[in-house]
């Protein structure tokens, strides 16, 4: 299940790249739809996955975003580094999100264990195919 929240409530823990934001905002504007909800920690509103989608929506003057709340304390959710030699953990992610001191792009890779399989966190993100105009709307749905 996903919910719509005010974009301003969310906290980013990781920087983004301008190229990816431009590409994604062009895709969303062309398709007139956001295809997938983003993953957010239910306790802190720190984004776990979906920073570029959030920034693309901001560029498109959206005020709302579909999210999937996850319990980041759940041991089935893990954070790994994208690059060798880097060290990350959930405390670092939360601290970055809550302090506003974002980590560099592609520092964290969130995964979720389902049964005996490990999946990227997008596994928990729901396909929502939300019309762009609904994300620009301020009223509740």
Helix and strand composition category? alpha+beta
Helix content: 25-40%
Strand order in the largest sheet: 1-5-3-4
Known CATH architecture: Alpha-Beta Complex
Counting structural domains, the number is 1
Gross morphology is globular
Span of the ends, CA to CA: 14 Å
Oligomer: single chain
Unreliable residue runs: none
Please characterize this protein's 3D structure.
With 141 residues, this protein is an alpha+beta fold. It has one domain (3-136): Conserved hypothetical protein from pyrococcus furiosus pfu- 392566-001, ParB domain, CATH 3.90.1530. The protein contains 4 helices and 9 strands, in the order βαβββαββαβββα. The strands form 3 sheets. Strands 1-5-3-4 form a 4-stranded mixed β-sheet. The chain has a 3-stranded antiparallel β-sheet with strand order 6-7-8, with no helix packed on it. Helix 1 (18-31) crosses helix 2 (51-59).
